[in-house]
Amino acid sequence: MPTQTQTQAAEYDDELAFYETTLRAAEGDAGLVLSHLEVAPGCNVGDNFSSIVTRTTAQGTRGSGEAFQRSMIVKRTPQTDQFRCLAAFAKETDAYCGLVPTLRSLCERARLPLPLAGCLHASRTLRPDHIILEDLTTLGYSMRPRQQGMDLQHALLIMEALGRFHGASLALRRLDARTFLELRADTSELIFFPAAEAVFACSLRASTTMAALSLRQSGRADLAQRLQARAARTGVFQEMCAVVAPPADGDVVPGVFTHGDCWANNLLFKYGPGGAPCQTRLVDLAGIRYSSPALDLLHFLYTSVQRDVRLRHHDDLLQRYLRTLRATVRELVRANAADAPLDPSLRRGAADDEDDVFSEEQLKEEMRKRAAFGLWIGLWMLPAIFFSPDIVPSSDSDSPVDYFSEETQAHMCKALPREFHRRLLHLVEDHAEDGTL
């Protein structure tokens, strides 16, 4: 019977061989030989909820004899299935196996970058518990502190990235209807569907309780009462299930593949010599859904953008998004039409006609129809954005803390920083003013 040391050595050799095979394919170097793997944490506590993330550095020798080193971000299946983490991991694997390479292929023909991290490994059969991505930090990308709302420069880059991602989806719909429909059928909702109510509804109710406590603490008991009345009238989880439902095929604003979790933790930026942001990448595709593009916009605007930017530059942000979306559809259709003739049933005008995509007013109306998503997702995400372990009450017993109890919510509400309460108040005020509350 092998000793523990022998077993660990065999596991390490197996891991080394797996990374060697993966990197040979990624580097296009069949002679690459790895000699060492170094593993470190890949993110901070609280930055990822659905997988185990490490930064793995591989060292070895290229086929040419040159020394080799490469850092990768490795995501592994979580140890527990709390909050449907295993389903989220499988969903992200599916995205990197199907949707992402399909969209990337369209973009490469048009020489347009898809604003996602490169994927070195994702498979439903070979090591399905691993997703290996390029380490964007080695390319100069970094994550902003999640508590800091984004300024206009950062927000415009994200609107461009979403325009590119959604535009690639629309182009695929026109170029290859069969593949589009197959991918759409394979893209299921992760959170807001009836069978997941037992998993997520209590968390949403707790976020509403927390919000009402915060509003009263800020001297706005009137808004707290209106918020609780709205939540009781519609049922937050039930309303979210309705509002994330995809548009009908004939709707003016069509359905697209959306990122589904577009907030500060999943947005990385690269900065130019003067310190201004110049490029961005969207990461963490576990939340991808097929639905209205308005959902990604609302998610981003109400979780990650400074209020002043959101209000004063709302039109600027939507116009940047639409310009990128239209340009992406136009360029991808032009570059790919020869290889994949346009489906007459989906073609809605000439490929170079920018009016062929929904207008700014139509997008605004779509966002108004789905405005409740921005309210509830913002209230749900804000505690996570400002979470730190020291705000959790200590337990006098061996039992775990009940995060969703009113007592725990009250304790955490008092412990959360002033900026949390300010952001939450602004979020609710904005939705009260626009008629959502």
From TrEMBL:
<feature type="domain" description="CHK kinase-like">
    <location>
        <begin position="131"/>
        <end position="331"/>
    </location>
</feature>
<dbReference type="InterPro" id="IPR011009">
    <property type="entry name" value="Kinase-like_dom_sf"/>
</dbReference>
<dbReference type="InterPro" id="IPR015897">
    <property type="entry name" value="CHK_kinase-like"/>
</dbReference>
<dbReference type="Pfam" id="PF02958">
    <property type="entry name" value="EcKL"/>
</dbReference>
<protein>
    <submittedName>
        <fullName>Uncharacterized protein LOC117652260 isoform X2</fullName>
    </submittedName>
</protein>
<dbReference type="InterPro" id="IPR004119">
    <property type="entry name" value="EcKL"/>
</dbReference>
